Sequence to fold (200 residues):
Amino acid sequence: MTDNNTRYTLLKKLQNSRDEKNWEEFVHYYSPYIFVIIRRFNVGSQDSEELMQDVLVKIWKNISKYDREKYKCRFRTWLGVMIRNTVFNFFKSKASRNSKSNVNYDDIIGKLELMTEAEVNIISEREWKNHIAQLAWDNLKNKFSEQTQRVFEASVKDEISNAELANQFDLSESSVRVFKMRVRKAMHKEIIRLNSELES
Fold:
């Protein structure tokens, strides 16, 4: 398989050829991430769905303008700023339409207006790590036994000790350590692979 047929150049492929296949792949990988970022800006779930579609339309129209060297930032930072601006404009519009109602959007508008690119970047990076980790686990989990899956998921969800996990799953602590080590090793490789394939 050649490099052009892999996700390694996903953004470049989309910039060079905005065909349906490239776009569907982009939407598959990025729409959950976009949705989470929108939610982090204190937007309700229903409005977040609408805003996610607005952001995707803007990406489609503007993806060719993104240049890492020009903007001196990663794609996800550029995307985060676009999302922040879209949410800001959404609430500004709502505020003007609802000026005679009891709904007050001043607080959220003020916070978004004062939010710096550095602050957007912190949110974008944190949520990207979570997003990539989830993608990696979704890709890998069926390669492990059900017991290994349950042990790993419990360790991540509850952050409990190996002793507690051993007791919960009726295993030895050494078995728990081996299960977790195997998964973490595979996750590390998969996260590196996904990061290299999904960004330019």
User: Anything to note?
Assistant: The two ends are 19 Å apart (CA to CA). The CA atoms of residues 35 and 52 lie 6 Å apart.
